[in-house]
Amino acid sequence: MHQDISEILFSEEHIKAKVQELGKQITEDFQGKHLLLLGTLKGAVPFIADLARAIDMPLELDYMAISSYGNSTQSSGIVRILKDLEGPIDNKHILIIEDIIDSGLTLSYLVDVIRRRNPLSLSICTLLYKERKRMKEVPVNYIGFTIPDKFVVGYGLDYAQYYRNLPYVGILKPSVYEGESEPEQQHASPAE
Ligand SMILES: O=P(O)(O)OC[C@H]1O[C@H](OP(=O)(O)OP(=O)(O)O)[C@H](O)[C@@H]1O
Ligand code: HPA
Ligand SMILES: [Mg+2]
Known about the structure:
Layout: E1 5-10, H1 12-29, E2 35-41, H2 45-54, E3 60-67, E4 80-83, E5 93-101, H3 105-115, E6 121-130, E7 142-147, E8 152-153, E9 169-172, H4 174-177
Parallel strand pairs: 2-3, 2-5, 5-6, 6-7
Antiparallel strand pairs: 1-9, 3-4, 8-9
Helix pairs in contact: 1-2
The protein binds 1-O-pyrophosphono-5-O-phosphono-alpha-D-ribofuranose, hypoxanthine and magnesium ion.
1-O-pyrophosphono-5-O-phosphono-alpha-D-ribofuranose (PRP) binds next to β3, β5 and α3.
Pfam family, one: Pribosyltran
GO molecular function: guanine phosphoribosyltransferase activity; hypoxanthine phosphoribosyltransferase activity; magnesium ion binding; nucleotide binding
EC number: 2.4.2.8
């Protein structure tokens, strides 16, 4: 285990089994429909790559790069779209693939943007759903795991862009980020 991790919440094998389960359910639910998986860069990359291969039907993949955390463990409150979808979606069923729902700000912003484009339907799938009071509530269709209100990294999730390549999801030791300045204001790298 990486020295900056205090506890592994979900091992590689555990995640793999959950992804297979979600893929099977999504395959059943969207059979015969024109499905587009909308992945949120960067955090959802490992999840969408594995999930797409666990869905046994034709589908499209596209991505939006959305950022609000910067180098912080707290949302800046400002959600920015850094890359948009390639084309119209009014003839498609959209399934948003998120790595985590925390404050709810990213997802509620994204849902507003996508709804205005009139997809045939809009559903949401997240690997992790943090138990906390949310700033914005959005109904979620597929949840991998519910997690405690701790800052987690791995399997795509970062702190200051690091740890995304850990194969498991773990709790980051608070000592790594204690003393961080306000969101978007600092540029510290975590301990190696
Ligand atoms: O519910 P929220 O409090 O809005 O948090 C969830 C969002 O925050 C993270 O994105 P981040 O801004 O860190 O961008 P990244 O995916 O590039 O790391 C994460 O990947 C989710 O998209
Ligand atoms: O707990 C978290 N870890 C990493 N990125 C995040 N973005 C929102 N919450 C988190
Ligand atoms: Mg992030």
